[in-house]
Amino acid sequence: TPDLDDPKLLIAFSQVMPKLRAAGLLQAYHDRSDGGLLVTLLEMAFAGHCGVNINAAASGPSASIAHLFAEEPGVVVQVSDARRAEFLDLLSEHHLLAHARRVGAPRADMLVHISGAGENLVAPWSELRRAWSQTSFQMRQLRDDPECAAEELAAQIDVTDPGLSVALSFDPQEDIAAPFIAKGARPRVAILREQGVNSQVEIAAVCEQAGFEPHDVHMTDILLGRRQLAEFQGLIACGGFSYGDVLGAGEGWAKSILFNSVARAQFARFFARTDTFTLGSCNGCQMLAALKSLIPGTQLWPRFVTNRVEQFEARFALVQILDSPSVLLQGMAGSVLPIAVAHGEGRAEFESPEQLTECERRGLIAYRYVTHYGQPAQRYPANPNGSPLAIAALSNADGRVTITMPHPERSYRNVQNSWVPDGVGEWSGWMRMFRNARMWLG
Predict the structure, then answer these.
(1) Is the pLDDT assigned to residue 158 strictly greater than 80?
(2) Which of 24, 162, 168, 216 sits a CA distance of 20 to 30 A from 200?
(3) Pairing mode of beta strands 365-369, 313-321
(4) To which H or E segment does residue 393 belong?
(5) d(CA 93, CA 108)
(6) Alpha-helix residue ranges (DSSP H) falling in 259-408
């Protein structure tokens, strides 16, 4: 177990860290006690997708590569050469300068160079990345779909992978709904949820920002007659796990409507109105797909079943928006942008190959998963659920109803996202989706 000989050092470290961060001196940070310095630096190189030079002699002139495995308390920080003096001055103020060592530097190629006490080791980044992933890979081959495990490993060791990217056909900071909001009208939107649903707060927040008046509507409000969908111009079915998904992905939620004559009639009337829009996200997507008998223009929609990997998926995926009738996605076609994914049953299952072909022919696929190279994703994990044609979202025929398995409401602000390009503003591209809805209502 790592020990701490001098607690005053840890106190001094905790005092200097906020100052280093406030000064913008830290480009990367990782603690080193779990696995030692070697594992720490390799994990940083894996995350940064770059090679690295590692100098074991930083621990002393006689230090060998074996010293890199010592699991003593400590951290690795990355500081630019241009600001090294500022960094060292702050360490000196807190009497930590004697404990700082320059242990290496990133390198542009995908090689790892390790040296110390006359020893030198050069290894390909991909070889070490594969070794680092072996335990997880072997476990996943036994626990999950074996082909998915192999596909994920292949993706992890791809040295040419360019990573996530954003390419928009519009300016996400432009508020196209502003002229309508300025009129003072805020259309009422029902944020519909059921037991187990958990995205209603994010949905309400983005609707408020886009110029709507969001209302929290639970299914019991509908079933007991406390609320009527006739009150609203928009309906958004939230993501989550209605009934814990034990009745199937959104199926129990849908059946509480289909098997209740009052609720069924109310939803049918709402969907038939031409002045309304509907969005279903994740669990709401699954639920609306199961209600397609009530929704005009959805005969070609699939149902959603267990992910191909046979596990719940939570990751940041890349999608491309296609040209579709969806009123929520107008002006966005061709854009490529990341989005949050969180589902266990998101694989689109069509009744027949012909139904899938016709769905594509009619342009009802609203957006699809793509690889980091911008191609339709056929393999895991770029396609997180195994949907055919990499389907991530669908529209009905007249565009008033859109269902999406990923979560645009969890990605509409750039601060929500685990990665964003440099220099971006407040809103990601997904904000346009909700502003489109506001503009469409007029």
Answers:
(1) yes
(2) 168
(3) antiparallel
(4) strand 391-395
(5) 33
(6) 261-272, 283-290, 353-361
Q: 264 and 258 in contact (C-beta within 8 Å)?
A: yes
CB atoms within 10 A of CB 80: 11
- State the catalytic residues: 282, 407, 409
Mean pLDDT, rounded, of the chain: 95
Q: Which of these, 138, 173, 165, 171, lies nearest to 152 by C-alpha position?
A: 138
CB-based contact 25:83 (threshold 8 Å):
yes
Q: Which two tokens stand for residue 208?
A: 């408020």
Token couple for 376: 């339709």
Tokens of 146: 């074996």
Return the number of other C-beta atoms located less than 10 Å from residue 259's C-beta.
9
Query: Considering the chain, what percentage of its residues have pLDDT values greater than 70?
Result: 100
Q: What percent of the chain has pLDDT over 90?
A: 90
Pairing of the two strands 313-321 and 336-343: antiparallel
CA distance 78 to 290: 51
- Secondary structure letter of residue 379 according to DSSP: S
Element (H, E) at 39: helix 36-48
88-102 pLDDT, tens per residue? 999 999 999 999 999
Torsion of CA 154, 158, 164, 169, to 10 degrees: -100
Distances (CA, A) of 220 to 234, 249, 291, 326: 19, 19, 18, 29
Look at phi and psi of residue 4 and say left if phi exceeds 0, alpha if psi is from -120 to 50, else beta.
Answer: beta
User: Residue 274 and residue 220: Cα distance in Å, rounded?
Assistant: 26
At 403, list the tokens: 């269902």
Residue 75: how many CB atoms within 10 A of its CB?
13
Q: Is the pLDDT assigned to residue 267 strictly greater than 90?
A: yes
Could you count the other beta carbons within 10 Å of the beta carbon of residue 195?
Answer: 15
pTM to 2 decimal places? 0.92
Q: Are strands 188-193 and 213-218 parallel, antiparallel or unpaired?
A: parallel
Report d(CA 227, CA 218) in Å as an integer: 9
